[in-house]
Amino acid sequence: MYLVRDEYTPRFGRQYLTLWSGMFAEQYEGSALELPGHNGYMITLGEYVDDQLKIKVSCSSPRTDQNFHEVDQEINDQLEENGVDTRLRLSMRRDGS
Does residue 96 form part of some domain? Predict the structure, then answer.
């Protein structure tokens, strides 16, 4: 499951979220920008323009203290539907390498 964090910095008057993975949420995976109609987010995975994957998520927005569980679950569900592995990934193998 990807961890979602609100960056508290509106971009273009819309909420901006970041997506993280790893045991301690240390691996940046992508971002989500609230859609203009406040009816979801556009997720962008990947750091480079040529290698980016964009996925639209229809859910309630903005993400608040009252609805963050539902929004986070909807984001992860949509990522899984589009073939993105959202299982918790460890950044280090058991042998320490």
Answer: no
Residue from 80, 77, 81, 64 nearest 17 by CA: 64
Alpha carbons 61 and 54: distance in angstroms, whole number: 18
Count of structural domains within the chain: 1
Inter-CA distances, 62 with 12, 13, 58, Å: 14, 11, 12
pLDDT digits (tens, 9 = 90+) for 37-51: 999 999 999 877 777
Is 91 part of any domain? no
**95 lies in a domain?**
no
Q: What is the value of pTM for the model shown? A: 0.80
